[in-house]
Amino acid sequence: MTPADALPRKRQKFLPTLFRTTAFKLTAAYLVIFALFAAFALGYVAWNAQRLLTDQIRSTIDAEIQGLAEQQRQGGIRRLANIIERRSRAPGASLYLVTTPVGERIAGNVEAIPPGTLDQTGESEIEYARTSEAIDRPSHALVRVYLLPAGFRLLVGRDLEERERLGTVIRRAAGWSLALVFVLGCFASWFVARRVLKRIDGMTETAHGIMAGDLKGRLAITGTGDELDRLALNLNAMLDRIGELMAGMQQVTDNIAHDLKTPLTRLRNRAEEALRTAQSPDELRAALDGAIEEADNLIRVFNALLMIARLEAGRASENMGELDLSEIVSGLAELYEPLAEEAGLALTCEVAPGLKIQGNRELIGQALNNLIDNALKYGAPEQGGDGSVAVSARQVGDQVELSVADHGAGIPEVDRGRVLDRFVRLDASRSKPGFGLGLSLVAGVVRLHGGQLRLEDNAPGLRVVILLPAGNPKPVDTPALAEPAASTAAPNPAGLPSL
Amino acid sequence: MRLLIVEDDAEAAAYLTKAFREVGHVADHAADGLEGYAMAEGGGYDVLVVDRMLPRLDGLSLIRSLREQKDDTPALILSALAQVDDRVKGLRAGGDDYLPKPYAFSELLARVEVLARRRGAPASEPTTYRVGELVLDRLAHRVTRAGQEIVLQPREFRLLEYLMKHAGQVVTRTMLLENVWDYHFDPQTNVIDVHVSRLRAKVDKGFEQPMIHTIRGAGYMVRDTR
């Protein structure tokens, strides 16, 4: 196809597209409505004007008939005939005809009228001719037949030419104005539709570009603030968000690839080394044990990643119900207490009884488990000596505050946002076992439960605070919150009302 | 023990049947849900090991259909879906236990053996467990060994109770976490080991023969070695 015939084809395609636009259809509809309205208005004016003219003609005829009848009464038929003969000669005169009772013409200026017109008195519209030459092209007139005494008949009428001319003028005006409305309307709709279509085509083109992979493309904003601009602004905001998500996903994928490759490499190296150097079955067995352990760690990482992904997608929330948070917290503290003791840390637990939240027991348990696990791993004082980890839960207004605090190295303020990301491990903790997923998971669980997560300075150490919406809006007893029942990892009489 | 393994992955199925036969069990294999249902309906199995995602009839539907036929053969569900909700769905469908893939064979074996034993056990549990000279009275909450009372914390008591209920069987750490603490998440540390070693210190201290044994690579077992 040469460029020369490409253009007309595009034209051909362009016009039907134009007719299909909303702007064109709307304009066309307005055009029809406006034309109908104009036609109605003009018709009304014409009808009224005609009626007014007819009334005027009628009253003129009536007045003349009365005058002539009066003359006849005073001067008889002869005088009437004279007057009529005289009046008939005047230019632009009315129509006159006086006949004998048998219909013979006495005087008048009408040559031909339809037969039988004179038989009936009263008003009618007839065709007539003034002269015998004009019989072929008769004119219209409004006439009135009046019965004079002694059976003479008097016909008085007026030509309707004037009225007809008015009608013609109005009809022509209507025609012209309708034609004008139509032409202007067509032009306007074409113009509006083309303008809108042009912008929509621009948007479509940008969208095609984005679909083809150019994620940086954005829709043009004209700055008029009209509906298309607002749409474009919103779509641009959506594209920004998608771009952010894509970038985030890319980063996560890179992280996952890197952090899973490390243990996989270790696993592979071990197996290879065992093949190369192991001499005895015992050595091979030890190598295989090590390999299984590495594999188990990898499975753990996978599970944690899947769980975080699910949490971030806002799922895993099917099994939400009312939970006794006090029972979960004191139960976990009890579970970890021997481990803490072994690590040389005192685990204390202050839990207000009967705290209720809406949530998933496994997820909340996993989150708290991760926090306590972290506190035991990193919570030993840097200068040595006896450390302590404090777990507490209490009601604050319509929220439940859950906190795990230690006196370890803590997290520098600059890193506090970062540690919630996947696979982030601070340099100080690299020597300890772990994958840097624990806090990400906690953050995911908290977000899913509609809560807030705060990392605070415990001076020294780290205090992780979780605020969750309370499950029972009315706390049973607020004063008890000021002095939470202290217990050291002993099972709490969960579910008892606070005293 | 007669086992039916319903698993569509041929390699995994071959591995499982071989492993179960090695430890002395009889293991049959069905490659899809319908075949598994037909074989299970024939009866005679002590435990069903059912993969969750199967061709023709999925694992959950298989178990649900069996339960509707009043067949209560214990069933363990194997699944690649390891999320909390999935486990709950599996148990709701009539499964007796749920093990996410990938799993350690020792874990699967321990769970299957517990399920098989539970089937043969009387409906009501005895009020006292006795393993050699170790006696646990569930009603009086008292533990004695060779007539000598051992004072235990409530949780230690429940730990020992579970171990003694399954005396002679391997009990894994995950099983303890699930059944004694009712937690179904991954603690990532050796929390259970510390609890068991505390319990062991109280139960086995001063006696020549240990009652609580560590089974390498699997878990723990209470057994009278004399």
Query: How many distinct beta strands of chain B?
Result: 12
Q: What is the overall pLDDT average of chain A?
A: 79
Name given to the CATH homologous superfamily of the largest domain in chain B:
Response regulator
**Would you identify the CATH architecture of the largest domain in chain A?**
2-Layer Sandwich
| The first-level CATH class name of the largest domain in chain B | Alpha Beta
Q: Number of folding domains of chain A? A: 3
Biggest beta sheet attributes of chain A: 6 strands, mixed
Beta-strand fraction estimate of chain A: 15-25%
Residue fraction in strands of chain B? 15-25%
Shape of chain A: rod-shaped
N-to-C CA distance of chain A: 90 Å
Strand order in the sheet with the most strands of chain B: 2-1-3-4-5
Model description:
The complex is a heterodimer of chains A (499) and B (226). By secondary structure, chain A is of the alpha+beta class. Helices cover 54% and strands 16% of the residues of chain A. Chain A folds into three domains: 1-215, Beta-Lactamase, CATH 3.30.450; 227-312, Helix Hairpins (Orthogonal Bundle); 321-487, Heat Shock Protein 90, CATH 3.30.565. Chain A has nine helices and 13 strands. A six-stranded mixed sheet of chain A has the order 11-12-10-9-7-13, with helices on one face. In chain A, helix 2 (22-89) runs antiparallel to helix 3 and helix 7 runs antiparallel to helix 8 (438-448). The radius of gyration of chain A is 52 Å and the shape is rod-shaped. Mean pLDDT of chain A is 79; it is low at 1-10 and 473-499. Chain B has two domains: 2-120, Rossmann fold; 128-222, Arc Repressor Mutant, subunit A, CATH 1.10.10.10. Chain B has helices spanning 10-22, 33-42, 59-68, 84-92, 105-120, 154-165, 173-179, 191-204, and strands at 2-6, 26-30, 47-51, 75-79, 97-100, 128-131, 134-137, 142-145, 148-150, 171-172, 212-215, 219-222. A five-stranded parallel sheet of chain B has the order 2-1-3-4-5, sandwiched between helices. Chain B has a four-stranded antiparallel sheet with strand order 6-7-8-9, covered by helices on one side. In chain B, strand 1 (2-6), helix 1 (10-22) and strand 2 form a beta-alpha-beta unit. The longest helix of chain B is centred in the middle third of the chain and has 16 residues, at 105-120. The model of chain B has no long low-confidence stretch (mean pLDDT 86). Chain A binds chain B through residues 289, 292, 295-296, 299-300, 303-304, 306-307, 310, 316, 318-319, 331, 334-336, 338-339, 342, 360, 362-363, 365-366, 369-370, 373, 376, 438, 491, and chain B through 82-85, 88, 100, 102, 104, 154-155, 181, 183-191, 194-195, 198, 217.
